[in-house]
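Appendix C: a fully annotated inverse folding record. The material below is reproduced so that readers can follow the format used throughout the book. The structure is listed first as tokens, followed by the designed sequence.
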């Protein structure tokens, strides 16, 4: 690979593979606030967004590209901290920063991360592969990131017990395991919230879904280690776990990560939530959607 230093990066892709390309914005006051999030944390989460998309396709990340625009009131120390966090995570995943751009913005900070990955030809796990009658699974626990954000918005400081939610992990190894074994029929990463991302799979696959409320693995949060509210687990977003469907047997752990069955796909369209007493109600997409408000 030829990286930074020329007009373009030159990437080598293994024979018989297809390219995966994803791009994600990280925008001040939308995805983070400088008074809440340290620069290294913002850098790590910026790259995590792209890596998580590659994970959702079962791919192998190959290179990252960063375009960063900052206003003139942003100190160099902040930029240095941002890059430090991003590059540390890139080293963990063995993903080189192969290029990008810098510019002055009219206001605030805008970072666009592009990540290039690959999969053997014809094996990428899409959102459109789910079939009626399959089981629905999620990795990890949900709602912790939203609970942390809710706490910060209330003006409360976050202790070390919140670290795992502030530093989400892209489930690259899990996605690869599911793809290599043909286990996942459809998959998506949980960046916008379980309800919204599940709707994406349902729409692309033309199936419905029934989710068992009590089965959703809600995060333990705070010093008292209480379960987060069901609404945060359903709609909170930014967990960067994987949601997938499968007609095969799925182990309780994949690549060291907990996997939980939370429901099934159905022929009848629409999403439904089944409560503890078996009562069923319609489940609407309540997660993040751009142009419908400010996070």
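Designed amino acids, in order:
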């Amino acid at each position: 690979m030829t990286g930074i230093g020329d007009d373009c990066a030159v990437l080598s892709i293994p024979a018989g593979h297809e390219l995966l390309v994803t791009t994600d914005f990280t925008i001040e006051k939308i995805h983070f606030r400088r008074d809440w999030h340290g620069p290294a944390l913002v850098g790590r989460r910026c790259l995590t967004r792209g890596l998580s998309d590659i994970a959702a396709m079962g791919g192998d990340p190959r290179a990252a590209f960063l375009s960063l625009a900052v206003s003139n009131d942003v100190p160099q120390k902040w930029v240095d901290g941002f890059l430090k966090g991003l590059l540390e995570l890139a080293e963990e995943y063995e993903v080189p920063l192969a290029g990008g751009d810098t510019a002055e913005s009219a206001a605030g900070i805008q970072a666009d991360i592009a990540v290039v990955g690959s999969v053997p030809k014809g094996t990428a796990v899409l959102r459109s592969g789910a079939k009626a009658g399959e089981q629905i699974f999620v990795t990890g626990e949900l709602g912790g990131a939203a609970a942390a954000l809710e706490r910060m918005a209330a003006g409360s400081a976050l202790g070390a017990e919140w670290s795992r939610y502030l530093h989400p992990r892209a489930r690259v190894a899990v996605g690869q395991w599911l793809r290599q074994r043909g286990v996942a029929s459809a998959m998506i990463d949980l960046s916008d919230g379980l309800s919204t991302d599940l709707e994406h799979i349902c729409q692309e696959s033309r199936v419905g879904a029934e989710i068992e409320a009590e089965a959703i693995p809600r995060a333990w949060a705070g010093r008292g280690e209480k379960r987060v509210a069901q609404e945060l687990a359903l709609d909170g977003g930014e967990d960067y776990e994987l949601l997938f469907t499968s007609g095969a047997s799925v182990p309780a752990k994949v690549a060291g990560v907990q996997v939980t069955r939370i429901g099934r796909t159905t022929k009848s369209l629409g999403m439904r939530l089944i409560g503890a007493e078996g009562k069923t109600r319609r489940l609407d997409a309540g997660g993040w959607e751009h142009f419908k408000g400010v996070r």
